Amino acid sequence: MRRIARARLPRSLVVLAATVMAMTAGTNAVAAGKYKLPPVKHVWIIMLENENYSDTFGAPAADPYLARTLRGKGVLLTKYYGIGHDSLDNYIALASGQPPNTDTQHDCHTFSAFIGSTNHHGIETRAGCVYPADIQNIGTQLVTNGLRWKEYAEGMGNIPSREAAACGHPVVNGPDGTQAAVKGDGYATRHNPFVYFRNVIDHKTYCNRHVVALGTPHGAMPSTAVPGETGLATDLKSLKSTPSLSFITPDLCSDGHDYPCKNRGGKGSAAADIDAFLKTWVPKIRASAAYKDGGLIEITFDESDGPKSDSTACCGETAGPNAPMPGITGPGGGRVGALLISPFIKAGTRSTVAYNHYSMLAANEKLFGLPLLGEARTVTSTFGHDVFTAYSK
Q1: 141: pLDDT strictly greater than 80
Q2: Which end of the chain lies in a sparser environment, N or C, as judged by fewer CB atoms within 10 Å?
Q3: Which of 46, 115, 31 is nearest to 370 (CA)?
Q4: Nearest of 366, 390, 387, 392 to residue 27 by alpha carbon
């Protein structure tokens, strides 16, 4: 795999991450040996909000850009599931493989640190929100392998007194003031998984470099952006500036969470707001040199809403050590569907294999040659021939 310029991780975290990778490398090698994955070099994850499969991919008149236009360019995963309720546990699962706990299930209205935490085979076994430094995520894994990642958060820093324009998060053990959108700012900390890890937020320079504002489609950044902070539009301009992994978090209007939108005007429905965001950014990604050089776009939803009526699960998901029911009223987060677009995927195809957020994390870790974290090690299915239908090696 081609490597780009090495990002810097604090020395103590390099040692820790290397130890974790060595402990789990055998598991990853066995799992990856079953299928030769395509040489994907860049992944973009776009996480949307609170829709079940039947209301999005199953109702294309509601969101024609997602369910018709983009659907015709990639593979639709018809049996893709969230792993829990509410939002936050799904984001954390996709970034780190950590299962829901009783705090993350309820979106951590207090940005609380774990107290007396216990790491059991890479799983944090107690309740809390901000994971201790020994709990890894795919971002810290990538840096250890000399690869780059970024979280791009729409709206972050629009109101500087609410959150910073880089590494935006509440004070540890303080209240989360971003649980609801306000006029001019729809950033939600709970939709930005990487700031829930001490090995990210405890290193300010590192966090500022990797957790950034999305910026405008023309590259403009918030007025309080840190020196050198660049958004997605600017980074897409060259292979060198495009991270290996880009996690894209729309604001509470663009992701379909709020309707009517509270931070700004919307397009007429939650589905229309989602379409507008995707119509702005997906063509930019697909036009980039990085996408053409082994790119993969992953679009999905955090959980199936209804409200909370669909808590079904798949793929061997079990209850975490501190959440008897990951879906609060059931075993999972319900059927949401996912759409993947790549030069390695035949356009207009579909897969009926069951997958969930742990499956997507495991697939991304395998693509980058990383060991599997948390529940990604136990998930029963990860992306293979059914997904990468234009790659036969």
Answers
A1: yes
A2: C
A3: 31
A4: 366
Which amino acid makes up residue 67? Answer: A
CB 90 within 8 A of CB 333: yes
Burial 297-321 (b: 16+ CB within 10 A, else e): bbbbbbbbbeebebbbbbbebeebe
Helix (H, G, I), strand (E, B) or coil at 147: coil
Q: Is residue 13 over pLDDT 60?
A: no
Quote the CA–CA distance of 308 and 249 in Å, as a whole number: 22
In this structure, what token pair is assigned to residue 363?
């697939």
CA atoms within 13 A on the CB side of 333: 34
- What is the full DSSP assignment across 114-129? PSS--EETTEE-S--S
Rounded to the nearest 10 degrees, how much is the dihedral formed by the CA atoms of 54, 337, 97, 297?
-140
pTM: 0.91
Q: What is the dihedral of CA 375, 380, 385, 387, to 10 degrees?
A: -60
Tell the burial category of 272 from Cβ atoms under 10 Å away from its Cβ (0-12, 13-18, 19+): middle
Q: Name the pairing type of β-strands 245-249 and 149-153.
A: parallel
Torsion angles phi and psi, residue 117, rounded to 5: -70, 155
Instruction: Report the C-alpha gap between 392 and 173 in whole angstroms.
Output: 50
355: Cβ contacts below 8 Å, ≥ 6 apart: 77, 79, 80, 81, 314, 315, 338, 381, 382, 383
Element spanning 18, H or E = helix 11-32
Task: Using alpha carbons only, give the angle 367, 287, 152 rounded to the nearest 5 degrees.
Answer: 65
Q: State the DSSP code for 197.
A: B
Helix axes 88-96, 357-367, angle to 10 degrees: 30
Task: Record the tokens describing residue 301, joined without a space.
Answer: 């939803």
Residues 6 or more apart in contact with residue 11 via CB below 8 angstroms: none
- Does the N-terminal peptide bond of residue 170 adopt cis geometry, omega within 30 degrees of 0? no
Q: Is residue 43 within 8 Å of 296, Cβ to Cβ? A: yes
CB 87 within 8 A of CB 304: no
Model confidence over 52-82: pLDDT tens digits? 999 999 999 999 999 999 999 999 999 999 9
What letter represents residue 83's amino acid? I
Q: Is the confidence at residue 103, as pLDDT, over 70? A: yes
Which residues, including other chains, have CB under 8 Å from residue 195's CB and lie 6 or more apart?
151, 167, 168, 169, 189, 201, 207, 211
